Amino acid sequence: MFPPPRMLLSAILLLATGTVAITYDYVVVGGGATGLSLAVRLSEDPTKSVVVLEAGASGIGNPNITNLRLNAGNFGTANDWQFVTVPQVDAGNRTQAQIQGKVLGGGSAINSGMYLRGNKAEYDALETLGATGWNWDSMFAAVKKSEHFHPPSQTEIDTLGLTYNPEYHGFSGPISIAIQAINVSRFFPEFAVPTLQGLGHSMNVDPNGGFHNGPSWDFLTALPDSSTRSYAVSGYYLPVINRTNLHVMTESQGSKILWSAAKTTGGLATATGVEYISFNTSGIPKTQTINAKNVIISGGTLNSPKILELSGVGNPAVLSPLGIDVVVDLPGVGANLCNQPLTTASYLLKNGTVDAGNAIRSAIIDIEPFSSYLKGADLQRSEELLATKPDLLSEAQFAVMKTLITEGVPQMEFAWNIAADANNVSTLTFDRLILVKPLSRGTVT
Ligand SMILES: Cc1cc2nc3c(=O)[nH]c(=O)nc-3n(C[C@H](O)[C@H](O)[C@H](O)COP(=O)(O)OP(=O)(O)OC[C@H]3O[C@@H](n4cnc5c(N)ncnc54)[C@H](O)[C@@H]3O)c2cc1C
């Protein structure tokens, strides 16, 4: 009943008109972390047909993807959308690269693989803000279902002091999780942990149970070697690549949603499919369409608004000047953009702290509220800043965030990383000094 599986199907599925011959139950636009996983789960029902359109290439087997430590090799390449911000007034008018995965698996194919759930209070805040049923309890059950945790070996526990709580993990899901262990030198148990303890931060046995304050070991989306990436493609898609009701088309970029001419009696617009541009048939971009009963847009934070707006869903003040007919008046599209600023700091260590040529990726992370680090006038200044709502933040979100902050939900993340060069010069780098809950908001159009 369905055409043959596998990727790159567009050439054989097209009619002369450029329309795919069947009506799918679901078309998923964006084969990233969310879209690809969702498509695999939807296609578990063999009576439903699902097609995924991914703008990027498959990337399967690319070492910059499979080896978690080589992920930066994707930045600025065809696997990255290579977006840049507008000049940032509060950053000396500099622009910033906004790396976004453009490859099957999306961000899960090129990210740093750090596996850390938020605080219980943050998930519960989603429900407070109106997302009924989205709270810590429901999310905790779902994330554990997706997880296959590989506990550290007894040797790693004995020599490095790695810790975890089995109650916080799933053991039979598609995504492998392991604690960073490879090349972790004695530096961490001998120096880093005592230093943090001396500052009054005792180790958090496992940060994945809804309370991540304090230093803890770094959990990664990786196989037990803590180098081989586990992501939407390897965990969800490859095990079912021969599923006949699931089709994944790479180098196929969704350009807009197709709508039924008639609205429902309630005035709602009904999607009937998607227009997309295929780049994989002959090297010449070709506009085609796909019919589907349900259209799911999962292009990621920066691309989903664009697809919606090109489809007439968005703020009329943005769409009308561009000559786009408004199908759904939805001013929130492209608003409320939030990103976490990140900086780094490096220090030279005594020679021989780590072995020559070895580098490890953030063995320890420390996640803290401002009040743990800021003192005196700095703390007072942060309290003053909290008194005024930033322009683009809604009253409801501001109220929730102030509560999180004042109740001690952390705002800062420090990740410890060490490396040695060929001359055995060792460096300690805080490679992620991140403000995890910024109050400022931006827009994407
Ligand atoms: C450099 C980097 C490092 C990160 N590190 C971490 C980390 O250590 N830990 C962590 O938890 N998170 C990390 N993240 C964030 C994480 O990867 C994202 O939160 C996650 O991937 C978002 O999933 P998504 O499905 O919303 O979007 P994405 O995974 O970005 O997927 C969107 C997909 O849609 C495709 N697409 C977009 N537009 C179209 C279109 N018009 N037609 C067809 N396809 C389209 C894209 O190519 C992409 O494949 C990192 C992200 C980046 C970029």
UniProtKB/TrEMBL annotation:
Signal peptide extent: 1-21
Residues given in the record as FAD binding sites: 103
Glycoprotein among keywords: yes
InterPro entries hit by this protein: FAD/NAD-bd_sf (IPR036188), Glucose_Oxidase_domain_2 (IPR027424), GMC_OxRdtase (IPR012132), GMC_OxRdtase_N (IPR000172)
Keywords: FAD, Flavoprotein, Glycoprotein, Oxidoreductase, Signal
Glucose-methanol-choline oxidoreductase N-terminal domain segment(s): 101-124, 300-314
GO molecular function, one term: oxidoreductase activity, acting on CH-OH group of donors
Cofactor names: FAD
Similarity comment: family membership: Belongs to the GMC oxidoreductase family.
Name assigned to this protein: GMC oxidoreductase-domain-containing protein
